[in-house]
């Protein structure tokens, strides 16, 4: 029985021919008549809405506003030049201070606005932004040993463990506010005489090139530091909590403080319109 079944399996099978199945050929429909209506996908642009129905905020200069976000659990601080956080660029600001000190991504329910600093000119805002980033980097990398030293208990005088050390160094809320006050005090005094002298030489050199080559031939446009960094008039700081301004010892007399109006989104700052300090806050 087993031998017959094996022989059937090994026996060559006959080729099965289906006489009833015929290949289908696509018939050429030929030229279309003139009355045929062809429905095609539109290739042009869509119809734009009337401008009176679009509500847009007045554009402001890039760098004129500094948006500062704070982590409500760790008090980490992130600086941004745009109203919304960029996940990749913001995470690049956070240094590695131990395990689980750098989040995988920014959560909207944990990063809330801390303050919004508005400057009269974009150059002044970019100058303050650069110094704030440098100061924050020093706080997290060039700190004193007293900052990470145990002050109580049996381990008094010894360095903190890695986990506690990371929590201490991540708390940059108070340092961020004190750094902003220090930057504004520097801008109130103005740039140094040596820096003003170098800027004046650049202005004279570019003016000479424009007289020789022509106005449109020279693309260099040096900044007049005396005019751009000549004080803090027009600087406005809006706080999510006004009592946070007390972390700084002193503020320049020309700086104005106000309460930051929260928008309907958790993480978003209010949009800005043209007004004092480069814009007024309003909820969208």
In short:
By secondary structure, the protein is α+β, with helices and mostly antiparallel strands. It contains seven helices and seven strands; from the N terminus they run αββαβαααααββββ. The strands form two sheets. Strands 2-1-3-4-5 form a five-stranded mixed β-sheet. Strands 6-7 form a two-stranded antiparallel ribbon.
Can you describe what's shown?
By secondary structure, the chain is α+β, with helices and mostly antiparallel strands. It is built from seven helices and seven strands; from the N terminus they run H-E-E-H-E-H-H-H-H-H-E-E-E-E. The protein has a five-stranded mixed sheet. The protein has a two-stranded antiparallel sheet with strand order 6-7. Helix 3 (122-141) crosses helix 5. The N and C termini lie far apart (86 Å). Mean pLDDT is 77; it is low at 53-59 and 278-284.
Spell out the key features of this protein.
alpha+beta, 5-stranded mixed sheet, 7 helices, about 30% helix, disordered C terminus
Structural class: alpha+beta
**Helix-strand string:** HEEHEHHHHHEEEE
Beta fraction = 5-15%
Low-confidence stretches: 53-59, 278-284
Instruction: Work out the number of β strands.
Output: 7
**Oligomeric state:** single chain
Mean pLDDT: 77
Our count of helices gives 7
How would you describe the shape?
extended
The spatial strand order of the largest sheet comes to 2-1-3-4-5
Major beta sheet summary: 5 strands, mixed
How many whole angstroms does the radius of gyration measure?
A: 33 Å
Percent helix, as a range, is 25-40%
Termini gap: 86 Å
